Amino acid sequence: MSDVLVALDVPTLGEALALARRVEAHVAGFKVGLELLHAEGPRVLREVVALGRPVFCDAKLHDIPATVARAAARLAACGVRWVSAHALGGPAMLEAAAAGLAGTAGVLAVTVLTSHTGDNLAALGIACPLDEELARLACLAAAAGAEGVVCAPSDLGVVAAAAPGLLRVTPGIRGPGDAADDQARVATAATARSAGAHYLVVGRPITGAPDPAAAARRFGVGFEGTLE
To answer: Would you please indicate which residues are annotated as catalytic (active-site) residues?
Structure first.
C-alpha cells in the first residue's frame, strides 16, 4: 500500500492525466497545485478525481472567512479529498474552510512552507523559534477542526507531539543525491516515514524522472531501500 501523493505540477490537463495514468498503479493519490489549478480551473480536479484515487487540492486558501468558505465549497463540489488552507489565516478562517467543505473533504492546514527557514520567519516578523511556531500552528489547526497539516519532514516530530490527532502530509521528499530545488527543508522518504508522516507528497523526483512510473514505484512503501 503506497502513501505517496504525486504532485501533478504540470501546465496542462492533458499532461496531468497522462502523468497520473503512468504512475497510478504505484501511488496512493494525486496532488493538484496552484499551477495546474490556475491553468485549467476546477475541471482539472473533476478529471483527476475521476481516475479513482484521492485528490489533494493544494489551493492554499488564505482570505477572509466568508470568501474561504465559498471557495472551499466550490472545491468540495469537484470531489476532492483534501483542500489546503494557510494556518496563518487564523482559527475563524480554518473553521470557515471546514464549514465550506461540509464534511465531504478535510482541511489540511499549511504550517510553515518547506522553503522557509528560521531566518525567513524572522524577516516576516515571527520572532519565536521555528519549533514554537510549528507547535502553535498545529494546535491552532486542531482546535479549528482541520483534519491534518502540511509540514516539512523535519517538522513531523514537533507537530505530532503538539497535535497527535492530526493527519501529517509531508512535501519536500527527495531521494539521495536529488536536488533540493527551492525547498530548504527536505528528507528522504524513509526518514519522513520514520518521523511519523502519514502521506508523502512527491513532485519533481517523480515528474522529472525519465520513467515516472519506475520513480513512483521506488518511492513506495517497501521499495525505498533502492533510493535511501
So the answer is: 60
Q: Let me know: does 146 contact 94? Beta carbons within 8 Å.
A: yes
What is the per-residue pLDDT across 148-197, written as a single tens digit (0 to 9) for each?
999 999 999 999 999 999 999 999 888 666 555 655 567 889 999 999 99
pLDDT value, residue 225: 35
Nearest C-alpha neighbor of 100 from the set 52, 51, 64 = 64
Which pLDDT band, with edges at 50, 70 and 90, does 228 fall under? very low
What is the model's pTM? 0.90
CATH number of residue 129's parent domain? 3.20.20.70
Q: How far apart are CA 98 and CA 104, in angstroms?
A: 9
Taking the C-alpha atoms of residue 53 and residue 56, their distance in angstroms, rounded to an integer, is 10
Question: Are 199 and 5 spatial neighbours (Cβ–Cβ below 8 Å)?
Answer: yes
What total number of domains does the chain contain? 1
HSE, CB side, 13 Å, CA atoms: give it for residue 188. Answer: 14
Q: What is the 3-state secondary structure (H, E, C) of 112-163?
A: CCCCCCHHHHHHCCCCCCHHHHHHHHHHHHHHCCCCEEECCHHHHHHHHHHC
CA distance 73 to 224: 37
At 34 the pLDDT is: 94
For residue 43, what is its C-alpha cell?
A: 475541471
Domain of 147?
4-226
